UniProtKB/TrEMBL annotation:
Protein name as annotated: Glutamate--tRNA ligase
Short sequence motif named 'KMSKS' region, residue ranges: 240-244
Renumbered residue ranges of the record's region Disordered: 113-139
Domain of life: Bacteria
Residue ranges annotated for the Glutamyl/glutaminyl-tRNA synthetase class Ib catalytic domain, each copy included: 4-307
GO CC field: cytosol
EC number: 6.1.1.17
Basic and acidic residues compositional bias, start-end: 113-132
Domain Aminoacyl-tRNA synthetase class I anticodon-binding residue range list: 342-471
The reaction(s) this protein catalyses: tRNA(Glu) + L-glutamate + ATP = L-glutamyl-tRNA(Glu) + AMP + diphosphate
Cited PROSITE patterns: AA_TRNA_LIGASE_I (PS00178)
GO MF entries: ATP binding; glutamate-tRNA ligase activity; tRNA binding; zinc ion binding
Amino acid sequence: MTQEIVTRFAPSPTGFLHIGGARTALFNWLFAKHNNGKMLLRIEDTDRARSTPEAVDALIDGLSWLGLDWEGDPISQFSRVGRHQEAVEQMLSSGTAYKCYSTPEEIEAMREKARAEGRPPRYDGTWRDRDPSLAPDGVNPVVRLKAPQEGETVINDMVQGRVVIPNKDLDDLILLRSDGTPTYMLAVVVDDHDMGVTHIIRGVDHLTNAARQTLIFKALGWNVPEMAHIPLIHGPDGAKLSKRHGATGAEAYRALGYLPQAMRNYLARLGWSHGDDEIISLEDMIAWFGMDAVGQSAARFDFKKLENLNGHYMRATGDAELLGHWKIYLQHADGGDAALFWLSQSDNEQTALTALPGLKERAKTLVELTESASYLWRQRPLDTDEKAQKILNEEARTILKELHNVLSTAPNWGSETLEAAVKSYAEERELKLGKVAQPLRAALTGRGTSPGIYDVLIALGREESLKRIEDQSA
């Protein structure tokens, strides 16, 4: 019987879902889906100061926005401390761990001596084979792994290849602190085993942990999961992606007006490739994904490429679905209240759906779409931008007055009828179409640029359009 593939995403709750973590989650999710397996979610919340309910909610919110689901309930690492301690007792009984009574001062003295002798500063194994009866009174020991001192630890990494670490370079790391709390290294191993994780997919910055965790797996007599350490994401300047590059959290990209499907597509292409394919549907991503196509080199985040990709998805997404994404964006955007209030009014949602085909053709993000759509909810008389003010001169007002008369007698308010009426008027007045369309655009939207003028007329409807033209033709 073939073993079910189980991956896990195991973030620390920091108050947001880091974009690098989002890519790691996506790779875990895609690998599991491709292999008809499942992804689990574990919150590594042992840092109680940072691990607030709000921080956990922010992580889950980011994953949900990206459309990445997981099997079962999120697992709290902190809630499993008793199980971690139980595993250490097993190691003490089997002789693969021992209690260390060295004081912090003694540890520091060992490190100083090692530095002075040109050796790596680490614990020297003083209590490794010492009789526990020699333990001093009043000292709470830590528990250390009795790591092999000869040979080597090999990781056959699915991305990085064969990685060999001499065991002499791996010290007897701490498993339990003196207060009985487990260390990260121990907790990760116990949790991965108990959760049935078959494949660990994470950033290459965890590669140094892999050898140590492999030793713990073996010390407990457990199978070591397959490992894949994926390249880091760098900023455009080649440095590790950080706050100075701008948005680093998934929620920031949502607030910047990016669509989740565009983010998924873009993140999938950061380190993984499928020929020259740039635009990849979710179905194809799942069908094609494999660790063999993940490179070893760091991926560079290209904001311009993301924006262009997002523009594609804006145009390709159905109007009703895009409206749903737009509402979610407005809930998290600064200044989105006016648009949300307008959308909540009766019939306005239908008006928005009518306007969306024209709006999405000219917008690369939901921020741009909102700005272009703002004519829909701005109150009369419209405020006008500098470009519109220049357009609305005396000649333009005369044109608008005449256009008002032409449009008010239009037999119906359809796109073809309106276009025919405006073009006919321009021809009669021997005016270029732009000479007529520009004042009309400025009057209807208050802006010098806007979606197609006939789209605007249809979206606003007969009554509102005529009133706005009248406001500017007086």
